[in-house]
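=== RUN LOG ===
request id: a7f3
mode: sequence -> structure
chains: 1
length: 319
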Amino acid sequence: MSNSGLKVLVTGGKGFIGSNLARELRKRGHEVWICDITHCELDNYVRCDVSKFRQVERMFEEHDFDYVYHAAAEYGRWNGEDYYENLWLTNAVGTKNILKMQEKKKFRMIFFGSAEVYGDYDGVMSEDVMDKVAIKQMNDYAITKWVNEMQILNSAAMFGTETVRVRLFNVYGPGEHYTPYRGFIPKFIYNALHDKPYTVYLGHKRTLEYVEDICRTLANIIDNFKAGEVYNLGGDEQYDIKYISDLILKNVGKDDSKVIYKETEPFTTKVKTPDSSKAKKDLGFQLTVPVEEGIRRTVEWFKHSISFGGMKAWKMKTF
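=== RESULT ===
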């Protein structure tokens, strides 16, 4: 099969990573379709709630896709507590619905997993950790992502479906709109721009992966698809959360007078240390945008995409 000009579906394609990925895939000459839960004016768009099998079935009856990037999901630990029905329906039932169509239509799938599956593990996170250590996932979001990996492995064993799983760590960059349930970077930027307080947990460290670097790697999977593989997509360098907060404040032009400092955040690991050597070897995974530049770009995008200080809101065209 030629690896250019393929028909590719991105579920959750209006979301942060999905929209950036769709753009990257189009640049490579693929016919890209997206589905999401809202009505939309975009071409090659299907409104579909993946948790509703009838809608999923109709989409796949009307289209034959070579590859499906399954990014549609409810995101976040506290979102999963407050809206657990949506979380379980979208993440677990939604993935099962996609798998049922994969068993019938035989497209290849790339599943968007999460570093949250490593749960309470505080060592180097290689992809085979769960085969060696009893892991306790620490929240419903993490549990749904692990459930989905199990569903995928079972489908492959029973029906021969072909899927690659990726475990994303802390992807950031332009296009990630703020909500109270998003990650710490959009939360810090939004609050800094609005002169609102936010909390920084001292001693916590995370890798950071700029969205364009991640989407380039995700698009590369088509060129070296190894069914059954699982890849970490996490950087090598750990950044102190306070350092990132200070970077954001510098780019916003504010001091830290509104920042609340606390020692530790409950229900999360202090440091996540991924081993992404397999993705480097198979997928050409490489981080090319330094975090200082990535934060600068992200802050600039926020300044233009939200309304603050009387500035007129500006809506970014995704495509």
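=== NOTES ===
The first strand starts at residue 7 and ends at 11.
The two ends are 27 Å apart (CA to CA).
=== END ===
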